[in-house]
Amino acid sequence: MITKILPTKIEEHWKAIAAYLDKVMPPTPYGTKIDTDYLKTKVITEEMSLWLIYQNEKINGLLITTYTKEITSEKSSLLIYAIVAFEKLDTALIKEDFKTLQKYAKETGAQYISAYSNVPHVVKLVQDLGGNAEYAYLTLGVDQ
Questions:
Q1: Which listed residue, 65, 72, 118, 123, has the most CB atoms within 10 A of its CB?
Q2: Is residue 141 part of a domain?
């Protein structure tokens, strides 16, 4: 089960999840490490959202989401900025969680859910759910 955490409840969960975020978050396109304190500020101010994934009545993962807008079409996307599993997640549970995210995205005006990942089983899961996983996120520094 996935649950969106209210900004007033972030502090009580943050210490436990910040260590995981430090370990698993990819670097920014600029090659720098993501500042988890800055990320927490964005969640508290509701520019981003924290979702906790519960499995067997305990927290077993999290998502951080935000909204993006495609400039050429003005379509809104619920972007999964980060997804972290503390232990292996049940595939059926993940599929149900994505249905919850789809419903939330639709209710809040997004036309689709998007994410970046280089984790093969995440890419396969998106494909199994009927999503598109054809493209890679590319970066090239200007000083290279």
A1: 65
A2: no
